[in-house]
Write a structure and sequence with these properties.
Elements (H helix, E strand, L loop, with lengths): L4 H10 L24 E4 L4 H15 L3 E4 L6 E3 L22 H13 L3 E6 L3 E4 L9 E5 L36 H6 L5 E3 L5 H16 L4 E4 L7 H10 L5 E4 L7 H4 L4 E4 H13 L2 H7 L12 E4 L19 H10 L4 E6 L40 H13 L4 E6 L4 E6 L3 E6 L5 E6 L5 E4 L17 E5 L2 E6 L3 E6 L6
Parallel strand pairs: 1-2, 1-12, 2-4, 4-8, 8-9, 9-10, 10-11, 11-12
Antiparallel strand pairs: 3-6, 5-7, 13-14, 14-15, 15-20, 16-19, 17-18, 18-19
Length: about 500
Amino acid sequence: MKRFLPLLLLVAACAQPESVPDASEPVAVSDWSQGEGVVVHLFEWRWDDIADECEDVLGPAGYSAVQVSPPSENHVVGTRPWWERYQPVSYQLETRSGSREDFADMVRRCDDAGVDIMVDAVINHTTDGDLEHPSMEFTARGTAGTEFSSYNFPGLYTPEDFHDCGLTDNNDIHDFNDREQVENCELVDLADLDTASPKVRSTLAAYLADLQALGVKALRVDAARHMAAEDLLAIIEEAEWEGYVVQEVTESAHARRYVPSGAVTDFDFGFALSRGIRDLSLSDIVRDRFWETDNMDSEWALSFVDNHDTQRHGGVLSYKDDRYPLAVGMLLAVGYGRPRVMSSYRFDFGDQGPPADADENILRVNGDDGIGCGDERVCEHRWPMVLGMVGFEAATRGQDVMRLQEGGADRVAFTRGDRGWVAFNRSAEPWEVVHQTGLPGTRYCDVAQGPPTDTDGGCAGGSVRVDAGMVSATVPPGGLVAIHVNAQAN
């Protein structure tokens, strides 16, 4: 790891590949891509905190899954940057987030709360290959105490289990347009597993099978683009995986190659939506849906505004931007892909790890000794608007965008079938909007102010009346108003 990983991922995302799948050819969509409901990424949270969050926040709000940080033993790197979690040493479930027992308890409690666990599975590579870094100490020790050396992991891997691509002077990927380099050389010096090897495949499949035996129902496969699609499919099949799979593929041009083994991350969506919210007409964003291309399809896309990589190198809106709430609201309103919400911690520099104490233990969020949300933890997933729009997404799922109404470049309103209505206002002035919604006449909670407070029609904020299908509402500056049929006010 001699360079800054997120920057390299941005380079990969911007590369224009020489040979890509033919977008006109039909693609076999697998059951592994069939998942619905909003996912939240609780980035670098402890397992006990996630269990509490499932019971107290995620389940009641209607989140369907939570993406957790990689649970496998990882390399202990000096200063404890976040990316050490993406350098697996073994497949023991022992990390700064907790022990195997803590992990199993989290899975059980979240499942009881109706929330699936989505594991960030790092199976393309292990640790830095030569264990050298110009500014950080590489300890050659794992979070479970495993000691290792370059390409040697006792009882697990030997040098013969890794690719030696021989295509560049240091075996790193130099040309992200070259498929052979991308799949067989090292991503920023990370030791690249030979996933065509039966031994490696069986080792990785056993790890995934162990997760499934503990009750894990979803996978996010890290760096899937750097694995041959046929290798990844073979591993998932050998694991007899039954749940949802989403594969990290940074370039949408290659997405179709991976669809047989699950859904695919749509990085283009976040970049396109962020640009639109910043610079383009809001009505054009909704009408033209310019994030949609021949290479991606809503049926197998995981959509998101930002993630832990992209928020660190720019190009997308994040919690640091005033217009970010509009982008997240749009993510949950337009009905494209399976949406994922980011939950961040505040950072001043790209490598910065999660909030921790003097002994490098991740600080709790919940509980009497927890730091809570607001200062070090952003907790975007708890923002009232986001919680309310999770319910909007559920109520309008599968419904088309209809009845588009423009209010100039900075204002747009639309319905999702006859199930929901939403209006966005990017301007600095309130917007008095009158619009045909198609919804039954009654009073509705404005879920942009938060989800209903109870099942008897209590609202977290204001309410909006619909008469003969028509709504009259005031949309606040830089905000939105949203109503749906499952949030009627008393």
